[in-house]
Specification:
The chain has about 425 residues and is an alpha+beta fold. It folds into 2 domains: about 1-5 and about 20-65 and about 240-425, 2-Layer Sandwich (Endonuclease, Chain A); about 65-235, Endonuclease Chain A (Endonuclease, Chain A). About 35% of the residues lie in helices and about 20% in strands. The chain is built from 14 helices and 18 strands. The chain has helices at about 1-10, 35-40, 45-55, 75-85, 100-115, 135-145, 210-225, 260-270, 285-300, 315-330, 365, 380-395, 400-405, 410-420, and strands at about 10, 60-70, 90-95, 120-125, 145-150, 165, 170, 175-180, 205, 235, 245-250, 275-280, 300-310, 335, 345-350, 355, 370-375, 395-400. The strands form 2 sheets. It has a 16-stranded mixed beta sheet that branches. Strands 1-10 form a two-stranded antiparallel sheet. Helix 3 runs antiparallel to helix 8 (about 260-270). It starts with a helix and ends with a helix.
């Protein structure tokens, strides 16, 4: 009760967490933090688990949130457009890819209508991810009162080209926010009629205080892209104790937050006691990530990886294959999704902890990209993701150790070469 009274008189300033230049203490870094997490008596259900994650990231958990999960683009995009139609003050839209296709033009129509009724609309797209989008598309936005910026234009910031904005964020009135793996494009299921053409992805809508924090994250990329400054008011502190899903916003960019995000994921794996189910689109981790997954399996945790059987980037899939043997030997179960291209990035542990966002388990996400994920403490959300995981397994093929060892020599050599290249993919 004393803690709740103190929060009533606090405010959260709109500052980035973790702060730029912050040095993560050695005991909280990957390679060390696992011991702290593993020592928690009740694992992820231990009261100390949330405290450990707060120490790592330097950010608060926001209570008072409602979470809705979407597994196809048709439903996700419809919900996003409806939120935009209901906007009263502001729309912030950030996407690695914003295509000039049927889906992209529907979004354009919606934000143009919002701008016409006086809503402040800001759009941030990555210049490389959206390279196929015509200049006329952006000009149409600007001529209709929409502020639009491209992150790291291809010829203006030559030396910064490896650094990309991979986030997928929509924030409406700082009260409702969306994030996940879906860019704005038709391949996510808006108008694709044929089975197998719609990518399998996951997106979430958050209604509550976490949306305010995601506006702060958007503001970072907007400033970097030389967008016109805008203000964000402080958030009353009592919201951290409101009932509802508790959310930690895991955001990162080069030289900020990347070590923290990696340490949080390592802590979840080390604290898990029963299940650790991971879905990821581009799997090319480092050696320590393999050890963390193997150590969890050694403890008897049901560790499962759901990875693409079909992909739009074959070399990354081959790089991931270079890790399969060692993981299978440790007892990690690996499945490859067969129905369509798998693009989701999710984690669910022990029926309580969920992570949904834009981060892939590869070097690019943890070194070169700006990313945003939500860590959600909520049994209902975890159950939803677990059910989706089980359904996905029905459309997948499990990789067995003996069969994997018998694959042709040319594939073994190709996988090894791709694995060596994984730091630069």
């Amino acid at each position: 009760m004393r803690q709740r009274r103190r929060h009533r008189f606090r405010h959260f300033s709109p500052v980035l967490r973790p702060a730029p230049g912050r040095k993560l203490p050695p005991e909280l870094r990957v390679g060390q933090v696992e011991r702290l997490a593993a020592a928690l008596p009740e694992g992820v259900e231990d009261p100390g688990f949330e405290m450990l994650l707060r120490r790592i990231d330097g950010a608060p958990f926001f209570g008072g949130n409602r979470v809705d999960v979407f597994f196809n683009g048709h439903e996700a995009f419809q919900a996003m457009r409806q939120s935009g139609e209901a906007a009263e003050r502001e729309i912030l839209l950030e996407s690695y890819i914003f295509k000039d296709d049927t889906t992209g033009r529907l979004f354009l129509r919606g934000i143009k209508a919002a701008a016409a009724r006086g809503i402040a609309v800001r759009v941030l797209a990555d210049a490389l991810g959206s390279a196929s989008t015509r200049a006329a598309f952006w000009a149409d936005m600007a001529s209709n009162g929409i502020q639009v910026r491209l992150f790291n234009p291809l010829f203006e910031k030559f030396w910064y080209q490896p650094f990309r904005d991979h986030r997928k964020i929509l924030v409406v009135d700082r009260q409702v926010a969306f994030t996940g793996g879906m860019n704005i494009g038709e391949e996510y299921g808006s108008f694709r009629p044929k089975p197998g053409e719609t990518w399998r992805d996951t997106h979430v809508r958050v209604t509550g205080p976490a949306a305010w924090e995601m506006a702060v994250v958007f503001q970072e990329g907007w400033k970097y892209a030389d967008g016109e400054p805008f203000e964000i008011d402080a958030l009353p502190g009592e919201v951290v104790d409101a009932p509802g899903s508790r959310i930690l916003v895991l955001d990162s960019r080069p030289n900020r937050g990347q070590a923290e995000s990696a340490a949080v994921l390592a802590a979840i794996a080390a604290a898990a006691r029963k299940t650790l189910w991971i879905t990821n689109a581009y799997f090319a981790p480092g050696h320590r990530a393999m050890d963390i997954l193997g150590e969890a399996a050694d403890r008897g945790v049901d560790v499962r990886l759901l990875l693409p059987g079909k992909t739009d980037v074959p070399v990354v899939r081959r790089a991931g294959h270079g890790y399969y043997g060692a993981l299978l030997e440790r007892g990690v179960r690996i499945f490859e999704y067969q129905d369509a291209i798998l693009h989701a990035k999710t984690l669910v542990a022990d029926g309580l902890v969920s992570v949904v966002g834009s981060t892939n388990l590869d070097f690019r996400s943890f070194i070169f990209n700006a990313e945003c994920d939500l860590l959600i403490l909520c049994r209902e959300t975890a159950a939803t993701l677990e059910n989706a995981f089980r359904e996905d397994l029905e459309r997948s093929e499990e990789i067995g150790l003996e069969g994997w060892r018998r694959r042709p020599l040319r594939k073994k050599v190709g996988d090894r070469l791709a694995r060596w290249l994984s730091p630069v993919l």
